[in-house]
Amino acid sequence: MNYFQPEMECASREAMRALQSERLRGIVRHAYDNVPFYRESMGKKGLTPDDIQTIDDLPKLPFLVKDDLREAYPYGLLAVPRADVVRIQSTSGTTGKRVVAFYTQQDLDRWEDCCARAIVAAGGSKEDVVHVSYGYGLFTGGPGLNGGSHKLGSMTLPMSSGSTDRQIQFMCDLGSTILCCTPSYAAYLAESIVASGLRDKIALKAGIFGAEAWSEEMRRDIENTLGIKAYDIYGLTELSGPGVSFECAEQTGMHINEDCFVAEIIDPETGEVLPEGSKGELVFTAIAKYAFPMLRYRTRDICVLHRQPCSCGRTLLKMEKLMGRTDDMLIIRGVNVFPSQIETVLLQEGYSPNYQIIVDRVHHTDTFEVRVELTPEMVADTVKEISKREDALIAAMRSMLGISPKITLVAHRSIARSEGKAVRVVDKRKI
Ligand code: DLL
User: What is the CATH number of the domain that holds 362?
Assistant: First the structure.
């Protein structure tokens, strides 16, 4: 199968709108008939599926937010019989409850097709050796790019992250040509390759980097160090995973796979839909996935959409690099972290909720520290006891977040109290 698909990727505006409207009618009917949540939320607005005929009717539909997914945990939004689900993936939720996304075989195929298109847009073909160093497991990065690479017929190295020496060895020995990982891991790998003196032994030509924000400066740095072209890729678990949008060689924004996802930009305060070119919150409706329908899902990502002609020939709408979020979610080494999760752990472990999260980026790698106040009862602890407490907190954080912060226990009342909103997060990264 060819994964440059001009009938979709270069379709005329009219043809794409017609396809999107047809798919939208189908998914709205499916969600309404099979998910009580959608029936109720549409009912509250006096809507039935007949009211949604074209994508111009989208703004009539209510929004869906992350809290709705959390409340529906685990099966509340499932829209197909359990027996038709072949896979789940998952991501962190706002207060520790995870979001679980479900896939039918057809949903998985469509997701992998989107990832295959991204690899082709980065110059990939079946001749390539695709080195996937995103995490595997519940995180969508590894499984998504792995699936896309398989679809394309490329030799796929399911490396996952970590074990940098082994990554470099395989890269040299097997001739990896396309690297897929988070931009911060790419930068770290690049430094390690140079330090190992093996820069001339690698055959990499491209990288597909996403899951977290990265600057143009960081892109040029990675490109120059590794001698590759670095492409951005965007996605989120709720919408399948990576491949919602991807960059082409023009590197002026990411093309949205519009045959699968309809994008809107809204004013995050009022919910009003803004015209193309405005900065606002990105809202997606997934029109081609059935197990876990997402109608007007508020991503909390801030972005601008534009539809200028692209030299690659694709007519797919483009989204610019993300400009931040409307909530307090942090992305640290590619992992989504909510301050509320950290607070939950501290309270469970017997600490007060006086803490501060300090994030920085040193040599392109995120550092992550949590400063926690000892309670008055703990102040008399010995150094050995304090060090044991720190280890226990690191383990509890790791189990909640999937990554370990550096824990610094500080004296009672030493974290500055604020009169207004507490300053819980100090993010020193310049992205
Ligand atoms: O990060 C999926 C993914 C995996 C995308 C691999 C790209 C590559 P989640 O863990 O659910 O899914 O996190 C989704 O990550 O709402 C954005 O805030 C952020 N994000 C994803 N891609 C980018 C990117 C995956 N290219 C959240 N640039 C999203 C900036 C990104 N932020």
Answer: 3.30.300.30
d(CA 75, CA 281): 27
Domain end marker among 327, 342, 369: 327
Question: Which domain covers residue 34, as residue numbers?
Answer: 1-327
Stated pTM of the model: 0.90
Contacts of 255 (CB under 8 A, 6+ apart): 9, 121, 245, 246, 247, 248, 310, 314, 316, 317, 318
Q: Is 247 in the pocket of ligand 1 (CB under 6 A)?
A: no
Taking the C-alpha atoms of residue 135 and residue 155, their distance in angstroms, rounded to an integer, is 18
The best mutation among 138, 246, 336 to test binding of ligand 1, ranked by most ligand atoms within 8 Å of the C-beta, falls on 336
Q: What is the pLDDT of residues 285-324, one digit of tens each?
A: 999 999 999 999 999 999 999 999 999 999 999 999 999 8
242 lines ligand 1 (CB under 6 A): yes
pLDDT in tens, 315-371: 999 999 999 899 889 999 889 998 888 988 998 899 987 889 999 998 888 999 999
| Centroid of ligand 1 to alpha carbon of 236 (angstroms) | 5
Query: What ligand 1 atom has the least distance to the C-alpha of 299?
Result: 16
Please give the tally of structural domains in the chain: 2
Last residue of a domain, one of 275, 301, 327: 327
